[in-house]
Amino acid sequence: MPYYLSMAFKNIFREPRRSFTLGINYFFVSMLLFLVFAITGGMKKNISRNVIGSTAGHITISGETVISGRTYQGIRGYQRVARIIKEHFPDARLVTRYSLSSAVYYRGLSKRLSFTGIDAATDNGLRDQITLAAGKWDEFASQANGVVLPRKVADYFGLKEGDEVLVSARSRFGAFNTATIQVKGIYTTGNYFNRELVISRFDFLRKLDLADSTTASKMYLFFDNPDRAADHRELLLEKLNGSGFIGLKPASNSDALNAVSAASPRYRVQDSTVNQVRLTLATADEVTGIVSQAVAAINGGGLFIAAIMLFIISISIFINMRMTINERIQEIGTLRAMGAEQGDIIRLFIVENVALSLLFTAAGFLAALIVTTLFSTVVTVPSEGALGLFVNRSRFVLQPTAAAAAAITTALALFTMLFSFFPARRGGRIPPVAALNKT
Amino acid sequence: MNRLMLLLICSGALWLPAQEKNDNDPKAVDIIIKMEEKLNLDGIDVTSTFSLVQRREGEADRVLKIRVYRRDAAKKFTLIFRYPDSEKGKGYYRDGDNLYLYLPSTREFVFRNRKDDVGSTDVRTDLFGKLDLLKQYRVGYEKTQQVAKFDCDVVRLDAVALDVSFPIQKWYIRKSDGLPVKVENFSASNTLLRTFFYIDYKEVKPGKVLFTKLMAVNNLEKNQRTFLTNDDVSGEAIPDYTFSQAYLEEQSR
């Protein structure tokens, strides 16, 4: 066998033009698949990291409160929820925020923006993800109606530090309320999900929304070991349900995402007259679950293109091998005369083709690695732009993995073996006499 | 200034629930009752075509045409968008406190706040329904003031609950016929948000009137105005089927 193996490797470039023509297909298929998997892997990692950094925790608690048949979004009695969490998860980090969508008016311009209210003294999650281009965080933290704006928003209105702006929001009850905010900082961020978020103070937004002091929009829970978030949720649901709340799991990943992303409290009328606080507890995996579907769709697209290319390769293998066998029929006869069995001839041709595929697949991986390295270290892209989902701190997040390379290599090798077998078998079946008679 | 604004917001939040005790000014109540008697079209069905022209500085005019079917006695109305083509087939159906927006693109009814903006203009759906101000607001008589050439009574309305769009309103009601000529809408923190000017009315039945020309000014958006005209007004009976979700679906086809 080693003899045939050695012979097979020597034969790879016996017909260089033919080998390159076939090999280039392997090169592009392996490069394409490797790049697609690197992009989707990076996208998933990037989105999960950025979502958890901005609008979700390892467990995100959102809620709605039913009062006399009317349903309002938000967690009423959040301090009680916080006490239950602290009692059972004393080491977990808990962040409580208030979210509101509000129209901003300034010098004839207006725009609807998403506001997130934080406790500036304890909640550093957003501060750590932004870079202040103007203003100081401490000044924001000490000003009740202070806000920190994304640069994009500041540029749109022509705002600078210290400017006062009118905001008008439809409150959770339906009535409009207005207030003046003061710009205390202008920021840039590498997180796509924060790109248009106005950072405000928790109490300021709560009052603008005319909500009472026990209401919050979202609670985010972070654990040292996020892998156990689903188990922690089960325990938390049990404790919340035992304390007068109605704890629920999101019915689907889409529901989880909706629960996390609903910015502005909505007002609904229901038939029920029951007073209750319903809480939805979503894990980070559920919130970003919809990303997995998107990733699967992109991977599917890549695989579809690869399948077309593989179809072309299969035809090339057939044609190449028929030509090769016809050209090397004398060689086959000699090998058979020397004692080579039918199976040895089949193996020889299969190994030749698999070796060719491995060589060009490796070249494809190398080219893909060069591309991913260039794109993740040299090329810069604004995080706020259309490619923001793929970008962190202005760099593409690409995640080439050895597992992806191994899977692609195995698949291509098996494919080559399968499509080489039938023409190789034809070569192996040629009797030695017939082969030698061709001389 | 900032502290003052915050104080205003806090006071707005705390102040409104305190208004639940119904200490109405009798003079203001009388003015409102007389006005509602004329504007509320109880006992008759009204069909009309509303044309809305929204004018914004630096932008082309936006025009909407809406067919309105109104039955105040049953607290019902049906609105069907006729123009532009992009809005055609869309509509609202109100039944009591429930308001539904019909979206022909997805063929679904979306439950909306009964104070929804019509086609993203400054005109709200509650403009098409029956007024019930004394149930929602505490009323007080402010003063007499001239608006354009008319002597008007100024009545201030303060919401008894926060489920109204505008917690504070000022109605300028003509002394001569008891009809409003101007309405100012304020936020909970007393900022003027919108002003409506009632320019002309038409008598539908004896003692019952419908406005035929109205201008809505957005006081927060510079030079944004919506002009509204009411044509093809008819007081003929409307079939019951018109006030149903099925009718909206049928009309969108």
Written account of the structure:
- The complex is a heterodimer of chains A (439) and B (253).
- Chain A is an alpha+beta fold and 439 residues long.
- Chain A contains 14 helices and 17 strands.
- Chain A has helices spanning 2-11, 16-54, 78-88, 137-142, 151-157, 202-208, 229-241, 253-261, 284-287, 289-327, 329-337, 342-377, 402-428, 432-437, and strands spanning 59-67, 70-73, 75-76, 93-106, 109-118, 130-135, 146-150, 164-170, 176-189, 197-201, 215-216, 218-222, 246-248, 267-269, 276-283, 391-392, 395-396.
- The longest helix of chain A is centred in the first third of the chain and has 39 residues, at 16-54.
- Chain B is of the alpha+beta class and 253 residues long.
- Chain B has one domain (21-251): Clam (outer membrane lipoprotein receptor (LolB), chain A), CATH 2.50.20.10.
- Chain B contains four helices and 13 strands.
- A 13-stranded antiparallel beta sheet of chain B has the order 6-5-4-3-2-1-13-12-11-10-9-8-7, sandwiched between helices.
- In chain B, a hairpin with a 5-residue loop joins strand 10 (180-186) and strand 11 (192-205).
- Mean pLDDT of chain B is 84; it is low at 1-21.
- The interface between A and B is medium-sized, with 30 and 35 residues.
Could you give the order of strands across the largest sheet of chain B? 6-5-4-3-2-1-13-12-11-10-9-8-7
Q: What's the Cα radius of gyration of chain A?
A: 31 Å
Helical proportion of chain A, percent range: 40-55%
* β-strand number of chain B: 13
The number of helical runs of chain B is 4
Please estimate the helix content of chain B: 10-25%
**Outline type of chain A:** elongated
Give the CATH topology of chain B: outer membrane lipoprotein receptor (LolB), chain A
Poorly predicted sequence stretches spanning 5 or more consecutive residues of chain B: 1-21
CATH superfamily of chain B: Lipoprotein localisation LolA/LolB/LppX
Low-confidence stretches of chain A: 263-267
Structural class by helix and strand composition of chain A:
alpha+beta
What's the number of domains of chain A? 2
Terminal CA distance of chain A reads: 27 Å
Indicate the mean pLDDT of chain B. Answer: 84
Query: For the record, what CATH class of chain B applies?
Result: Mainly Beta
Q: How many DSSP E strands of chain A?
A: 17
Q: How many helices of chain A does DSSP assign?
A: 14
Q: Spell out the helices and strands of chain B N to C.
A: HHEEEEEEHEEEEEEEH
Which architecture of chain B would the CATH scheme give at its second level? Clam
